[in-house]
Every structure is written in C-alpha cells, then in structure tokens.
C-alpha cells in the first residue's frame, strides 16, 4: 500500500505540474438572465471566434446564471446563448487582449411553447455501427422472457461455447463491463449473473472488439459493455416489468427501475427478482479402445435470484461531480443431478454401467461498491477522474453423491458408494484508478492514467466418504486453494485530428504479480512479469457519406483464478475438471478494418493471432475410463472474420437487420506430446425483422444459422434457431405487452466432436431453448423534460456519466 500511495502522489503531482505548465489563464465570464433579471441556470453558452464564427468552447450556466471560459486566446469574440423555452440571443462583439473580461448580461426572452400536440417520431436502429464499436439498442428488440446472456448471444458476431462462455468474432477471452465498470467476472460466475438478469432491463450492448489504451489490456476478444436502463428525465419516474415463460418448466420474473433526478442530485434504484426452473442435458458418446461408453447427464436446477443496484450522482458545480454506486446479486439454487452411463464391448453387447444421483444446494453471491469523482480543470479543458472499487464474490455448495455400479443385467454390484461435499469459495477485489485528459487544441487530445488492483481468491473443498464407522474425511478429494494477484498499469494516448483524418495511438504498461498454493497437491504458484500493449486507431472520412476505420491492438488473456487450482473436481464417476497451475497468460495481436456508407456497414475485416491461447484439453485414461478436462496453453490459434450487413428500412413498416459473415479458424499446437493442426472455413447468417402494424402492434422474427466450425480442439457442428414474437403498446405507449416463442424447432444446441490421440467423443449439450414467454412493461412518473433542468452539467462526458455506475 505504501508503494501505491507514493505512485498516486506522484501521479497527482504530475497532473498539477501539467496545469502549472499552462498557467496563463485569460478568462471571459458573464451571466444569462430572463427579462425580469432572474438568473437562468443550465442555459447553453457558446464562445464564438470572429470573423470565422467558429465555436471555440461550449458550457452551461450554473445555478446563478454564471458562465466562465478559461484560457481564452487573444482575438475577437462574441457570446451566443440559448435555452429550451426561450429565444436565442448574443452579446456584442468584444476584444480579448491579455486581461480577464466580463461580458454584459445576456437577456433571453421566454417563448410560450405548447408541445402537447407535437409527436416526435424517431426510431433508433437495432444495430448501430460506429467507428470504434457496434451498438445493439436492446430497447428496440422483443426481449420477452430472455435473460441477458440470451440477448447478448443475438448480437452481431457473438456466439456461445459449450459452457456458455461468450465468443466474439471467433475469439475467446472477452471482458464484460456493466455500465462502464469492469465486472471482474469470468466463467461460471459471469454466466450465472447474466442468466439471472432479465433481458428487459438492458438498454444497450456495446461490442468493442479493439478497446483503446485507457481500457485494461485483458480480453483478447475485446470488451462487451452492458448498459442497463436508467431514465435521465427530471423529477420522479421509472418503469416496471413482469413476465413469465414455459418450456419444460416454469419461469417467472419481475423488476422495477426507479429514478429521481432533481437539481444537482441524480439517484436511481434497480431491483429484479426471478424464479427459474430449467434443465441441461449433456450427452457424451465416447469410444475407448474397442469399447463404447454412452453417458447421459441431466441437471435440473431451480434458481431464485435477486439483482439490485442503487446509486447517486451529486453535481457539486459545473466542475465537480461525485458519484456512489452499490450493487449485487444472489442466486441460491436447488439442483438435482442424475448421471447414467452404459458401456458396450466391440461386438455391441452391453457390459454394464453406472448411475449417480447428486442433489446440490448452491448459492452464488456478488456485492460491489464504487466511489467516483470527476473534476474539470481550468487547464486546456482538462478532466481528472478517480474511481475506487470493491467487489466480493462468494459461492457455497452442499452436495451428496450416491454412485451405483451395475452389471449387464442392471443389477447392483456391491454397495452404493456415498460421498458428500461441503465447499466454499470467494474472491475479493480492490481497485483504484485515476484518469486525466487534456485538450491541447481542438484537434489534439491527450489521455493518461494509472490503475492498481488487488485480488484474493480462495476455495475450500471438503469431501467425506460414508464408511461403516460413519462419515470419514477423504483426503484425496479435500483441498484448500489460495491465490493472490496484484496488477499495476499506466497508459498514455494521443488523439490527433486533421481535416478528414483522425489518428489515435496509445501505449499501456501492465505489471502482474501473483502467488498461490494448494494444500491438496502441495503446489506453489509464483509469477512476476510486465508487458507493453500498444494500440493504434485510424479513421478516414472519404467524403460526407463514406467512412473507413482501421485498428490494431495487442492484448493479454490471463488464466481465471479457478483454472489455476490443480485440484480435480469430479462431476460424475467418469468425468472430472482439473486446474492447471502451470497455465500462462496468452497474448493476441488483433487487426480490424471497417468500411461504411451512411452508417451502413459494407465490410468488416478482423484478423487475430493468439500465442499460448487457453483452451480445454481432455485427457482420457483407457484403463479407468475417466476423462479429465484440463485448461492448457495451445501454441497458436488464428481467427479471420469478414462480415457485411446493417439495419435498413425495407419499407416504412418493415425494418430488417441482416448480417452475413465468413470465418476462418485454425488451431496449431502440440497436444499431449503429439502435433495437432485443424482448420476450417465457416459461415453464418443472422436476420432480425420488425414489422410495424396499425394501432401500435408489431411483429418480430429473428433467426440465425451457423455452419460447422473449429473451436479450440472441438469440431463444432452446425446449428440454427428461429424466434417469432408480437408486441402491443397502449396507454399512450407507456405500457407494452409482448409475446414471444423462442427456438420454435428446438434446434439451438451445442454439438461437437473431439478427435485427437486416444480421444474420440461426440458431445451434445442442450437446454430449455424452446420456450413461450409473455411480458408486461409499464413506464410511469414524469416523462417530460423540464426547461430549466434539461441538462445537469456542461459536458457530454458528465451527461454520459448519468447512465454509468
């Protein structure tokens, strides 16, 4: 901590040294009032340079109607002022000659406005292609009955692997942010959270395949930023949602989103609860030597989840903003697991089998606290921001196993083998960061910052076996694991704009220090390294309609904390998962090119090469018939992705968003001492259609097809899905009923083959994909923009911050 305080102090000194270096500060100030001399707060004010009428700076007045522009260069200017509900006005021209100047008061005359009969018809496209990201406007979709993970999987270039991990443009290693804040979740923790979050509470999904240097270098596939709904209207307002669905089992969920925005304070509360009764069925057909082992595992979890989030932003004045956020979720589940395996000899004669019953009581919890502060400096439009975060994940598991071994006639061999496990795990994360930006001119911007994080991950698994003397601890299956990690990072980036060309280049340095130990295997982990991560972005406007962008990024994908634990966890008598303390981080070099016409994405090209990429490798023991999955570093994986398509209005009543993509995936590595080289070309098509009907009805239809492809060592088979739905808005469009049928033909499942060395396995994972869902949403409270409070702060960044945690 002492090193951290010293580094933070040095960083603050650097900031104020930069301010001192640009200390000359010529100010232009004044007031804006109405005709009765009453101060008008939050009026928009522009400093206009003459004679070219260029806008030099923009801001809004404070509660006293005051504005003040700093570091104004010598020259001739005037001030323009405007405000909703009032007419425009401007000052007389004035000359700045090296001294502070006060402009005479600008008076705005109010207008009698009647907006009651004005209908604003503006429909945002579902997919919005930007220069540096793809934005999915979820509020334009029919998400009835969908959870957040299912909504994300419908985004362009996104797929899910067999464990519901997100794959973007054929690449693993995605980082997920919630309202601009890193979630720090991976694997099962992330999947559980996203499945517990109703899709109806999502506002936007940002797919950032090549983030700039101000973001963490982690995430070889980029970042997905999930923006949750939060109303920015003044006063009290909110919305509620209620829904349910049925596939094989029932699901029910409900939630509310409350906002109170008044004056200098903006607050919100989100609550969402759900009851999800579902299942997963895993089929494994394994060829071991000349024998066949057919296994069927059935999971039946019943989960009751609660998500909450609350926060407040306090706009101290036009320069200072303070924010606080608290959020979390809990998802207790009662799960019944059944596993049945039957083995046959070379002649196809049944030889015997096993059956297992495994009831579980599991709980996943997460709590997070964020404190943030923003300060706009007088130096070159500078902005200084601080964030402090604390995140805690907890999980617990109580389960019993009853294993039965059967002969060819399905008769029990010996007595059942009974085991029980009481396990727990938790991860604590502390993080602080500071970011500073300076605008040297209208075309040159600098950003710099520092971030430090500390992680403590621990798990404790205690297995007991039932013997004649009672429950006895099983040391082979008992293990305590502890891992600590500290990451320190600093970055610098420059953004230079020319007439039609913008270039942004950055460099990020990250230092990683980690150590861990496992009691069950007496394994120690000790690693220290630091790396440099450059980024380059180029944007070229060929003309007013044609835009070309290109990007390069180097990134890192560190092993998940649980994957470093060398302990072996058995899910059934023949299947287990084992950690790997020798795992190293993988590195990727990614390139991307985009060409668009009038925001229509004509072409996207993405190419990346990953060294040491982390994938699952299955080890099979032909004697014991056990298959153990273990994460390992593969030598090299190559991904190429090409896509075209954007939303278009086919007619006034039909909006279509179609994407066609082609991919190439290759895996080259030594696997268990033997060479492995697999590659494939693949293609996919996705289409989302909305038909607008009279009387506020609409119909939706979504479908996709994915051809066979390579995913690590898995040769994935093709899949497709079709959803249809209908919506009806009423009560002045404040209420909506939505009906949707997901996966009509029940074809959305993961199917793959594993074939290398002595492994020959067919893998099929399916879930409750086909469902019928019905939902109701209602908006209430003040939905009007108040004239004097339509903008809280004077900058776009602070406006955007209202929607961030």
Care to describe what's here?
The protein contains four helices and 50 strands. The two termini are 26 Å apart. The protein is elongated and about 100 Å long. It is mostly beta strands and 805 residues long.
Query: Describe the biggest sheet?
Result: 22 strands, antiparallel, barrel
Q: Give the number of helices.
A: 4
Q: Termini distance?
A: 26 Å
* Number of DSSP-assigned strands: 50
Radius of gyration: 29 Å
Main structural class:
mainly beta
Overall mean pLDDT: 84
Portion in beta strands: over 45%
Low-confidence stretches: 8-23, 112-122, 784-805
Shape: elongated
Helicity, as a percent range = under 10%
Structural key phrases:
50 strands; mainly beta; 805 residues; six-stranded mixed sheet; disordered C terminus; 4 helices; 22-stranded antiparallel beta barrel
In a nutshell, what does this entry contain?
The protein contains four helices and 50 strands. It is mainly beta and 805 residues long.
Layout: helices, strands, pairs:
Layout: H1 2-21, E1 28-34, E2 44-50, E3 54-60, E4 66-69, E5 75-82, E6 89-90, E7 94-96, E8 101-102, E9 106-108, E10 127-129, E11 134-137, H2 148-153, E12 158-160, E13 166-168, E14 174-178, E15 181-182, H3 187-195, E16 202-208, E17 222-228, E18 235-246, E19 250-262, E20 265-277, E21 280-288, E22 291-315, E23 320-344, E24 350-376, E25 383-406, E26 417-439, E27 444-467, E28 470-473, E29 479-497, E30 501-518, E31 523-541, E32 546-557, E33 568-572, E34 575-578, E35 586-597, E36 600-611, E37 614-620, E38 627-633, E39 636-644, E40 647-651, E41 654-671, E42 674-693, E43 697-706, E44 709-711, E45 714-716, E46 719-730, E47 735-742, E48 750-756, E49 759-767, E50 771-781, H4 796-801
